[in-house]
Amino acid sequence: MSARHEIEITVNGRSYRRSVEPRLLLHDFLRQELGLTGTHAGCDHGVCGACTVMIDGHSTRACLTFAVQTDGASVETVESLGPPEKLSPIQEAFREFHALQCGFCTPGMLMTCLDLLQKYPLATDEEIREGLSGNLCRCTGYQHIVEAVRAVAQQRREMPQ
Ligand code: FES
Ligand code: FES
Q: How far apart are the C-alpha atoms of 65 and 23, rounded to whole Å?
């Protein structure tokens, strides 16, 4: 039996201390230990992007990260974005532009979009598509997702600094 490790982690602004097995994946930790089921597990091989969360400000595959690796880190999941009655700009744009159907890829898409919007101007559709190329969606054909991101990127570029 493998030894357990104590970790301290901040998730969506709240601190947790837990004892975890070294093999526990971050998405299982978030879903099973913390009850944050917004983060989805799809391929479990780093391919689909459904499990994407932010770790210390960078979008990261939770299926390729062990929970022990996040000791001392700050993690944001899709639950950090906004409740239904107060959607964040990217959630609101997904709603407005019909950028989701079954919604399975959506948490990972949203967290990837958040990271992209914070780091890049996303002035062209090519830039948006390249940024989203690590997230797979079986439903939408991507066009509506690109339109949603384009709208938020434009709003951000036009915001007074
Ligand atoms: S579940 Fe992590 S990339 Fe697919
Ligand atoms: S909305 Fe169904 S997989 Fe993307």
A: 10
The H or E element that residue 11 is part of is strand 5-11
> Residue 5: enclosing H or E segment and its boundaries?
strand 5-11
pLDDT tens-place string over residues 72-102: 999 999 999 999 899 999 999 999 999 999 9
Mean pLDDT of the chain: 96
How far apart, in whole angstroms, are the C-alpha atoms of residue 78 and residue 106?
Answer: 9
Strands (DSSP E) found in 13-150 = 14-20, 52-55, 58-61, 74-76
Main-chain dihedrals φ then ψ at residue 60, nearest 5 degrees:
-145, 145
* Residue 107 CB–ligand 1 contact under 6 Å: no
Instruction: Give the residue among 151, 86, 160, 141 at the shortest CA–CA distance from 117.
Output: 151
Distance 113 CA to ligand 1 centre (A): 16
Distance CA 16, CA 35 (A): 12
- pLDDT at position 1 is 57
What is the rounded distance in angstroms from the CA atom of residue 147 to the CA atom of residue 69?
35
> How would you class 140 by CB atoms within 10 Å of its CB: exposed for 0-12, middle for 13-18, buried for 19 or more?
buried
Q: Could you say which ligand is closest to the alpha carbon of residue 141?
A: 2
